[in-house]
Amino acid sequence: MKFGIGLPTCTEGMMYPVPFAGPADLARVAVEAERLGYYAVMGNDHLTTQRYVRESFPDPPAFYEPLVTSAYCAAQTSTIRFMTGVIVMPVHEPVMLAKQAATLDQLSGGRLMLGIGVGAYREEFEAVRPALKGAVRGDMVEEGMAALRLLFTERRATFAGRHYAFTDVEMYPKPLQRPLPMFSAGNAEGSIRRAAQLCEGWLPAAVGPERIAEGRQRLYRHARAAGRDPAALSIALQLVVCIGRSAAQAREAFMGSQLYAHLASLGGSTLKDVDTSAYERINLIGTPDSIRRQVAAYAEAGVDHLAGLLFVGNTVDEMIAQMRLFAETVVNAE
Predict the structure, then answer these.
(1) Among the four 2, 7, 317, 331, which has the fewest Cβ within 10 Å?
(2) For 181-222, what is each residue's pLDDT tens digit?
(3) Which domain holds residue 110?
(4) Predicted structure pTM score
C-alpha cells in the first residue's frame, strides 16, 4: 500500500480554516511528507470560492494553483511524487493544461500524476465558464482526457470534439513519463468507465471497502470491454484521517473539525450517495490499531494507494503532527 498526503493548495474554508497555509507551509508539508516516507502529495484545484465558504468566513481563502505549487515544491524535494486531486477539467483548456503538465513532469524528473474529474461544485463551473452553463461536465471530462492523451503522445495532434477542438498542435517537450499517469476521479459509473477506458487508474473518495470492491469489478468489466488489461489499472482512494491515542479523542477532533463540515457540504454532489452517519466508519478515524485494520480492509478490497489523505487540524502544525503520528504508527509500522 502506498500513502499520500493532501497538500493544502485549495482547501482553506473547505477542509481547513481561513487562513491556514501560505507558500512556505506548502513546501514544509511536501518536504516533511518526503522525509516521513510518504509516496506522494496531492493538490486540489479551484478557481473561485464556493458560496457556502463565502457565507462561513469573513475573509476569502487563499487558493494556490496545484501545478504551479507542485513545481515550487518539486524544486525542494527529490523523490516524492505530485498528484492532482483533482484537476477540474471543465474549467480548463486542454492544450494549455497539457503544456503545463508536460513541463512539470519534465522539471520534476517524472514525478507527476494527474487526477482529473468533473469537480464537486457546478456553481464554480458556471462562474468560470458561463457560456457553457448547460454543458454536461462528464462529457467535457471525457473529451478532455482524450485530448490530453493525444497531446502527450502524438507528434502533431488534432482534436475535434463538441466542447474542445484544436488543429495540428505540435507540443514539445512531451511528458518524461510514457505514459504520464492519469486517474479518473469520482464515485459515479461514468468516472469508473473513464478510468477503465482512458486512464491508468480510478480515484474515488470517501467510500467503504464494500463499495470499492464493487467498483473494482465494474472497473475491470469496462477495461476488458475496451480491450485493456484490468491488472494494469490502479485504485487510489481519498479519505480523511484523524488518528488519536484513543477512539474518543479521535472522534471528538474529527466531529469538531472543518473537514467534517466540508464532507457535509458535499452531500448534494460528490458524496450524495454516502450516508453522513457513515463518515466516521468510512474514513480513518480512530486509534493506530483500528486504522491499521481499516487500511488492511481497503487493501483487500483492491486499493493500491491511499492518496491525498486529508489530516484533521486547525493549523499546519496540527496537520503535520497528525502526519507524523500516522507515519510512525501506520505507514512505517512493522
Answers:
(1) 317
(2) 999 999 999 999 999 999 999 999 999 999 999 999 999 999
(3) 80-180
(4) 0.94
